[in-house]
Write a structure and sequence with these properties.
Layout lengths: L16 E4 L2 E5 L10 E4 L2 H9 L5 H17 L6 H16 L7 H17 L4 H30 L5 E4 L6 H11 L5 E5 L6 H12 L3 E5 L4 H6 L5 E4 L3 E2 L5 E4 L2 H10 L4 E5 L19 H4 E2 L2 E2 L12 E4 L6 E4 L4
Parallel strand pairs: 4-5, 4-7, 5-6, 7-10, 10-14
Antiparallel strand pairs: 1-2, 2-3, 8-9, 9-13, 11-12
Length: about 325
Amino acid sequence: MPSQRVNIDESPLFWPARLQNGVLEVLDETLIPSRVKFIRVRTTRESVKVIREMKTRAFGQLLVVLNTFLLLFKNKKGMSERILLREIQKMAEKLNASRPTFPFSEVTGRVVAWAQTAFDNGDDISNVVSQRIRGYLEQIRIRRLGRVRRLAGVIKNGDSVLTHCNVSGELAMAAALCRKNKKRVQFFATETRPYFQGAKLTCWELKKVGADVTLITDNAVASVMSDGLVNKVIVGSDRNCANGDFANKIGTYAIAVLAKEFEIPFYVLTQPSRRLKNGRDIPIEFRDPDEILIFRGKRVVPRKVKALYPGFDIIPHQYVTKAIELNVN
């Protein structure tokens, strides 16, 4: 079989936010596949808004967080080093509070620590921290590309893979590598309500690389597995624990339980963290009920009906066949 060491074409969802001429441009994933449009972000408030409104997700939100600090350095306008340090600390607090399930504090904590050390050493905070952030981002890029190659190795010729939500470009890029290596692979994507990331994002980027993808409703997973239509499950993760538990888009837990029942291998892409011992320590974000009560501006259920919408659920480690890890030091 040809080597996996071939060039990888990046999906637009692999790196959906980047600085351009002093402005942070963020791919508005809520408009895909109808439109490919970038939101221009200039302030911390705008960054928090993009995150809370799910304009970008998961890895894209991490990119927004890191690049928001770079925006601050570009617009510091003669701040003293002491004031700049305070601004970094305040910015970190605002970004950490934007979404409780996401471990932004693990990243913002690094930035604050880099800034504090630079201040204590009498160094230029802006220069030191900017270099550290850019180096950190480059390290992430290299390691994500490496994980794409490992993921492509997990997918075998003739596999039929079920996925839920969206894996921020990596699954589509692995699918492209599989095609280059003459592997025949089929994908089943859940629609992933209520935002339809599976339908709008996963199907879109898999088709862009020429993959064979079939959309199914979220509640068709048991039927598809029972009929023997899939032989692997691959999902991403948003928060990880020392014991291997993880959080992902609501509905992932049910898929993991079903995979166990039907003896289907269950793989998860993770960012290892030892800050939380187990899944019980992960704070779950409960989204605005209107996100499932209202569709395209119209209420779709009777008045006075309430809604409960946890954005994530916790998957215990015993349901995981293998974690494909991304280690960033």
